[in-house]
Queue: 2 jobs
Job 1
Amino acid sequence: MNAPDRNLHVKAPGVSELARIVRVNEEIKAIVSTAFRINLMALNAIFLAKRAGNAALGFGVLSNELRRFAQELTRHMATLRDMTSGSVGSVTGVVQQQRTSAILAAAIRLSGDGVPGVREARRRGATRLAEQQACLRSLDLRLRSAVEETQQLVELGGVLARSAKIEAAYGGTFSPALMQVSTDFAEVIAQIKRSLEILGKERLVKD
Amino acid sequence: MKQAHCIYQEDDHRWLAIARDATKPGYIIDTNEYVVVNGDEALLCDPGGIEIFPAVFSALSAECDPTRLAGIFSSHQDPDIISSLALWLEFKPDLKCYTSWLWQSFLPHFGGQDSTFIPIPDPGMTIRLGGLELQAIPAHYLHSSGNFHLYDPKAKILFSGDVGAALLPADHNGLYVEDFSRHIRHAEAFHKRWMGSDRAKRDWCERVSRMEIDMLVPQHGAIYQGADVQRFINWFAALEVGVLRG
């Protein structure tokens, strides 16, 4: 085989890893934007509870908790985002090493295994690739663990939203408005749960 | 199939030309690579692009031990010249790459690290290969702003990068120029367009006219030898360069 065009199409398995990182980043961005919405919704709910007075004292406390939850969620997502941007470097390293090793392997196939130095070059390449893949696997584990922690936090958010709904029932004349706000909270948190489920299934490396 | 042809040999001092690849796809420019071998050391001139690495590596390995490669000479920064650098370094991490100081921080985008590069100052320098003293000859603005050719005073061979290049039709596979008048037609448009400076061209022509050259070996097309070397220099000196068309 001497035609270079066959080398042009050396399969780069790392490309799918980059695509996975993009998907992970997109989900994170969606959750960050939703967390920002909860923060604003919680602020509105705090004002609404103040206007409702004594009848909405419990609702006001829960709105404050929901606001704190939104801020905590934003912090979690920032950590996740840092981890995925770090993983872009690792994936790029893997992609480059895989491509380089594949082209070198094509050269060795053409030249024959007897050429001095090729075994050492192969071994060096394989070692580097293994190191980079190990680094990526460790990042993947950390990312999965961080997603699980965030899922637990969001479970707490779900409990707060349900409690807010119960408190809304005692809101007197403000009850319909408070009910609407707490329903919105529940919907938004359900949306975050769905995004986190998708995120939990994504892997930076194949198992 | 790219093959290494020995174009000069005296004892253990050889020049190999890895030239003219008829099997390469048409959308990649055809390139010539040259290997200077002296005793236990070898220097690869303009190793070529990523896509042709397997063909060049295989051709080189058939004629010389690739672990003896001590360095790479990169006449300038173009991808068809040196984009395979990372692959050569993958094979031999301690390779040194000689290139214009101007490209010292650009070529690492293709591969290598600080210790890989040996910058050539504008006036040129001597590159030692075993006991052989090769000379990096300035050819700035022909066509690159930091451009060097490589002269072997013992073999009287000048590796001239893009100067002397000819974009030959696929069926012109000869290693050497056989009919200068016919050959130079395929070099004219290339030189008019790619060589941007008349002053640089005149400087180069004067410089190389003073040198003893038996063979002028370009990065594209066939090799000039004997009287064709001076014919080429005279032709180039008279050529209007830096021309978009005509």
Job 2
Amino acid sequence: MSESSPTTSTTSDASIRAEGLVKQFKDGPRAVDGIDLEVAPGEIYGFLGPNGAGKSTTVLMLTTLLPITDGRASVGGFDVATQGSHVRATIGAALQEAALDPNLTAVEHMRLQTALQGIAKADRKRLGDDLIERVGLSDAADRKAGTYSGGMRRRLDLALSLVHRPRILFLDEPTTGLDPQSRTALWEEVARLAREDGTTIFLTTQYLEEADQLADRVGIIDGGKIVAEGTPAALKSEIGLPAVEILPADPGDHERVIDVLRANCSYDESQQTGNGTVSGRLREGTGLTEIVRALDAAGLKVANLAVHAPTLDDVFLAKTGRKLEGAGDDEEQDEHDHDGHHH
Amino acid sequence: MSQPRRFTETALILAWRNLHNFYTSPALIIPALLFPLFFFTAFAGGLSNVENVPGFDFPNGYTAFQFGFVLMQSAAFGGVFTGFGIARDFESGFSRRIMLATPHRTAMLAGYAISSFVRAVVVGAMLFAIALAVGMDYSGGVLDTVGLVALALGVNMLALLFASGVAFRFRTIQAGPLMQTPVFMVLFLTPVYVPQALLHGWIESVAAVNPLTFVIESGRSFIAGVPEELLLAFGFGAVAALVLAIWSLTGLRKAEQAGG
Amino acid sequence: MNRPSTFDQTREVARRSVLATIRQPAQWAPALIFPLFLVAVNSGGLNAATKIPGFPTDSYLTFALAIPFMQAGIFSLLNAGTDLARDIEDGFLDRMALTPISRSALLTGELAGVVVQGFMFGAIFLAVGLAAGADFESGAVGVLLLLALASAITLALGCVGIFVAARIGSSEAVQGLFPLFFMFLFFSSMAMPRPLIEQDWFRAVATANPISYLIEGVRGLFISGVDGEQLALAFGICAAITVIFMFGATRALSARLGR
């Protein structure tokens, strides 16, 4: 190994830092197109974007699994390109499609992982059992991973990535395909890791809610570029004030309600859902009270009136002109029942 | 932990995992045990009349003659099947876990090699036992047997190095035929059914220059207890091992470049 | 809308089956190349066997040319079965089942590609064999009989593949038949005439193995001319396999499609 010692680390105290990171596949797309980012120690950074945006490619480069085409990156103070083995010793990673061997049990996976990570022989068994318990798999510890549900697979994958107590953890779409309950359980564990152990977490996701709930800061990636970055609150406030939604009691009043909104809000034709509800975004200085008064003054009766704070989806829409939610979420349920159609 | 010790540990734990998979999944172990047995019974049983052909000069009879081929064939296929395992690990993403966790990625190859060796020994031992049980006339002494085992393990390693090179480059189980077909062809372009002197037509010329011919004939000579063509067989093995090791390691480098 | 005739339906499914076969060289190319490679290797490797007293010909190539016909049959079994199983797995069959097609038309059509392949391969194997110096003792009538038998063999084995696919509905299960059928092939009179097999148990297995008679039917046309009894046996076995497994496949498909 010709790698230099950890003293040649980068100047900043960032856990993860990338400058002008590029990945150009041979005969393929520029999957990552000049990304700059910095993640502070102990921070949970959410990398949000639709399928094919370049999230996984970025993670593969930062975890040394894919060579960088251009730019620089350091993880835990080590250069990703030249100090690969130091980087790998510092990080843990649970990559997409929990890479488990269907023939091994959780205990056997732990045995393999602890040995690969060079954990002292005497500690392996105890450490493995502890981690299995921590992710709530003790009851299934001796079952083959091939029999696990999606949520169990992700939990075991997470536990395996924690074997060597990494300071920095990469989670690539950790909850894709999980049911809401498993998702919440995994969120809690991730949040606990950051809170109690001070682990830096780099998490990619295509779920707004996940980034919103979990991440201290969010980077939105689209087409290989970061299009927005900041805390969820800051990003949302960039969009502006809450939106108001009004459903007129008499559908015939639709146009008149639009006139009221035009006068008091920023109304955008293209943002209408077309289901009878009319919506507009509040302006600085205009509150809900003003809208209600204006509706009264016009003699309009309202069936429903609601106020919505901006979401990260609004941020994504504003930055890319497309909606994120559902972009890569088209799993179909195939429920053919051959006995179902007798003649 | 020291670097060499870490390398050994990594290789051993990976070998354990591969063997564990092999011995606990019937879909893997049954064909691995049955196929050589099947070839052996079909060739040795169906063609035994060939020993009556004028000029068939192998002193220990047709069963022993065929055992010499089938042993090498099963060793070669053990290596190829290990290559399948590597390709499957890449396809499932399991290799990424290994590549992230281990500082020595060549230890990965060593782990596969160890498990391939163990498999070859188990399958070969079973074949040996059955051949003796059905009355194979075996004249080899202890040294001859050691030589025969060394040859078989060498063939196993060559096939593994070749197949792993393919697996590292394609990283999908769909590359299976690319690992299997060349090995199969090289194997069958040797004196499979009759001694080299009785070959006829184009196969005679091809077998004469196929280096594996020396290996098979040399293996048979160990069985007869009169070792022959050793220098050619082991010399070829050494050269081929060097070339194929480069093929495999450059493949591993390519796999790293592609991100596992 | 008029209900389409069974003939029309069969023809359309058959067209798809033939096109699908032609357009997937990865499926049929090995079935062509692999057997030819083996016959080339074995005819050189085992030519010495013709010196065994009582061996029916002095050219092992002529003797071994029957084997590719069987191997092509096994490949057709795999291909026909895999195609149908994939149609079941990806829902294509359900789509067809929603049309007013009869299930026998569906199955017959699915087999058309296989039969065409059997016919073409038979012609290629014969041409390559003759070019390489093999004897063919049964003349022009023999050529027609050979091609008919080649088609019958692929049809019969194709029905086995279709039966397994219709019954189990998984392409993996169909692929799993490969070793089994190779076993049938190896423990037949493939490499040695039955009377010359020395080991009693092996001769008994080969005699009980229907594949032996298919091989001998093809081989007889090359080695000894038109032998009515031998050919009747070969065609009869093909017919029996076809009828039994076609019936089984139709029933399995009925259960699957619920009609």
